Structure formats: structure tokens, C-alpha cells
Amino acid sequence: MKTQAHPLSGLDPLLSIEDLAEYLGVPVTTIYDWRVDGKGPCGVRVGRHVKFTQSDVLAWIEAQREVRPGGNPDGR
């Protein structure tokens, strides 16, 4: 029996601006402001829409991690 892989299974999931705002717990306007200011995760333009790859969002979140005084940047 042959199992066929879903043709899109290797693609990185995309989030809309609304999805990203909900995930981060911030207003949609904050995401737009971050884009104007060059902050926030890197976006991908799909026609007239802006999407965010899940991997870019996770990398951006990791880069936002604060360094504790006397601690390591990785939180250990």
C-alpha cells in the first residue's frame, strides 16, 4: 500500500496579521505600527496581503527574550 504525502506538508504555515495579533495578544494596529517602524517579525507579501511564516514568528519571539542581570541570554 502506497501512502501519498500531502503536497503542502513541507511548507511553513502562514499567519495573517489578525492571526499574529491574536497569538501575541496585541491589537492588530500594533502589528501595523511595528511594520511601519521596522519592528516585529518579517512579513511575506502574498498579493495584497501580508502573511507571516510560523518559523519567522518563532525566531522573532526568541530574539525578543530579555537578558536577566547576571544571567545568560538563553535564560539559564
Automatic annotation (TrEMBL):
Gene3D superfamilies annotated for this entry? Winged helix-like DNA-binding domain superfamily/Winged helix DNA-binding domain
In alphabetical order, the GO MF annotations are: DNA binding
- Domain Helix-turn-helix: where? 14-65
Taxonomically, which superkingdom?
Bacteria
Q: Which InterPro entries does the annotation name?
A: DNA-bd_dom_put_sf (IPR009061), HTH_17 (IPR041657), SinI_DNA-bd (IPR010093), WH-like_DNA-bd_sf (IPR036388)
Q: Which NCBIfam families match?
A: excise
Name of the protein in its database record: Helix-turn-helix domain-containing protein
